[in-house]
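Help needed: design a sequence for this.
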């Protein structure tokens, strides 16, 4: 008796657990350990590696502008940067901040000079000059062949980098055309007494800036800083490079083609709001351009102020006399956006039940070194007291290539979603910065919770009993509670169910019964049978499951049941 009760309970537990499992929610993750490879489009949003254990998405500090429909555009392309630079380079306010300017437009290297008169220029043998055809701007560019030749700038009395000066804000910019950019090629160096150095050199197809003993505290403690571009510098192509320093905040930024590549704070804590270390120059300092470099340099300039990089913000009427970048160290006021690829939920008629998200806000430099200010997990609006926020949208359909025809539906994390049905879904997220644009929301993970509309499990214990010209089939019900009926497949070859008989062609709809008699079969022929369950949740017709285990029977005139 006890054994019978135990078997009954065991069957009940297995059956109910199986049925429950078939109807359970499923999850799919974006971000976190899964990474962000499913992100198809991103505008003013990029990945940051050093914020959390896994990479997160946050607003980029790159150039932005608002388009006519209010959406944020991408950073300008290479050709656009060149065109914009030619328009902003001679703005009066920008020119008034110049400390040194070498255009390399003179007739030959021996004529190279600083048009501001603050630096004496010395030219090594081997430095050549290109014509107007190869120059980035103007009538020429300096050409270096990879040896020890260089252009040396020695500061005179009124130069920003004159010996003994306590330098505050400064910017250095130039155009670069490398031939190969091999490791160790040195584009720029500033050397002074002792170990005080600035180096800009190639490392793994990127440019790295090193500041040694350059930033000093009032007690003369020194600080070394290294920042590196994220973008690969492409050989045999012009690119614009800008290094700029703000002594009020201690923010040092490296910008390529208008995009902030890396940033650091020259503070004791290496973060914002610490005690700022500022440049204190030793004696006998000088700039060296082109040492151990193969390629061309053009439009080398030093400024006494923090300047804007080439970008459309500089062309806006209200900013034409501004020296500081309007969004310096801030995030784009227009925000940013991501869209995923079409995410396959597995089955037609699937339903996205809800999304869950985790993240927070970031503050600090608009580069790699940002710090977490707040965190977000759970439900409700992804919004913070400083007005930074992330808003989510979904759209769905049965065909991935037609998702663009569907309207985006705004959704809230952890709230039930009632209007997202189909095999494919897309997720979009709009990122909005804080009111002062000093912090950005970041997204660590997006969790999709969905009902994949799995078809019902096949029935078990399918039995075929041969009779005269017929076969009686019976089976045990599918364990899925949403099963609406069964399809019976039959044929004369194993796994090939194309049978035809007086009841009709395979498959036969048995309805919600668990047995079916198939008449009109030929005696002496071996028939193969399989049964599949179906439910009514498909977009059209049956939503059919897998075949049961195959069974066989051979009808005979004298068959024995």
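Sure. Designed sequence:
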């Amino acid at each position: 008796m006890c054994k019978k009760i135990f078997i009954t309970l065991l069957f009940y537990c297995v059956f109910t657990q199986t049925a429950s499992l078939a109807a359970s929610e499923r999850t799919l993750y974006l971000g976190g350990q899964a990474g962000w490879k499913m992100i198809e489009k991103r505008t003013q949003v990029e990945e940051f590696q050093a914020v959390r254990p896994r990479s997160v998405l946050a607003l980029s500090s790159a150039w932005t502008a608002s388009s006519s429909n209010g959406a944020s555009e991408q950073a300008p392309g290479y050709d656009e940067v060149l065109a914009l630079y030619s328009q902003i380079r001679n703005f009066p306010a920008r020119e008034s901040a110049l400390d040194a300017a070498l255009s390399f437009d003179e007739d030959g290297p021996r004529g190279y000079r600083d048009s501001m008169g603050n630096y004496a220029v010395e030219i090594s043998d081997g430095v050549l000059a290109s014509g107007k055809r190869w120059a980035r701007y103007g009538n020429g560019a300096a050409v270096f062949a990879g040896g020890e030749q260089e252009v040396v700038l020695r500061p005179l009395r009124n130069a920003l980098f004159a010996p003994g000066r306590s330098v505050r804000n400064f910017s250095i910019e130039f155009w670069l055309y490398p031939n190969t950019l091999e490791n160790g090629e040195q584009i720029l160096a500033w050397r002074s007494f002792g170990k005080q150095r600035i180096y800009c050199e190639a490392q793994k197809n990127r440019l790295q800036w090193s500041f040694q003993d350059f930033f000093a505290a009032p007690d003369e403690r020194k600080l070394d800083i290294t920042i590196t571009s994220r973008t690969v510098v492409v050989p045999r192509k012009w690119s614009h490079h800008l290094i700029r320093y703000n002594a009020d905040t201690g923010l040092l930024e490296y910008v390529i083609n208008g995009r902030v590549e890396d940033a650091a704070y020259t503070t004791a804590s290496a973060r914002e709001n610490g005690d700022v270390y500022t440049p204190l120059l030793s004696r006998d300092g000088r700039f060296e351009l082109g040492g151990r470099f193969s390629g061309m340099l053009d439009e080398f300039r030093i400024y006494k102020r923090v300047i804007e990089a080439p970008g459309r913000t500089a062309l806006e009427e209200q900013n034409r006399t501004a020296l500081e970048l309007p969004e310096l160290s801030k995030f784009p006021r227009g925000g940013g956006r991501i869209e995923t690829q079409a995410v396959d939920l597995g089955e037609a008629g699937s339903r996205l039940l809800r999304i869950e998200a985790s993240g927070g806000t970031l503050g600090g430099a608009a580069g790699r070194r940002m710090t977490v200010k707040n965190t977000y997990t759970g439900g409700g609006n992804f919004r913070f007291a400083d007005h930074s926020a992330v808003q989510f949208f979904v759209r769905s359909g049965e065909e991935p290539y037609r998702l663009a025809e569907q309207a985006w539906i705004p959704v809230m994390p952890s709230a039930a979603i009632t209007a997202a049905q189909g095999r494919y879904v897309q997720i979009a997220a709009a990122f909005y910065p804080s009111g002062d644009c000093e912090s950005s929301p970041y997204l660590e993970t997006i969790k999709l919770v969905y009902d994949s509309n799995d078809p019902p499990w096949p029935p078990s214990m399918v039995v075929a009993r041969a009779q005269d010209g017929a076969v009686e089939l019976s089976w045990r019900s599918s364990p899925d509670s949403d099963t609406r009926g069964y399809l019976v497949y039959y044929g004369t070859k194993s796994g090939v169910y194309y049978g035809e008989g007086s009841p009709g062609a395979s498959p036969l709809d048995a309805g919600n019964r668990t047995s079916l008699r198939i008449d009109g079969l030929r005696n002496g022929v071996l028939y193969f049978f399989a049964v599949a369950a179906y439910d009514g949740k498909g977009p059209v017709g049956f939503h059919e499951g897998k075949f049961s285990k195959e069974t066989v029977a051979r009808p005979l005139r004298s068959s024995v049941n």
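Residues 242 and 451 are 51 Å apart (CA to CA).
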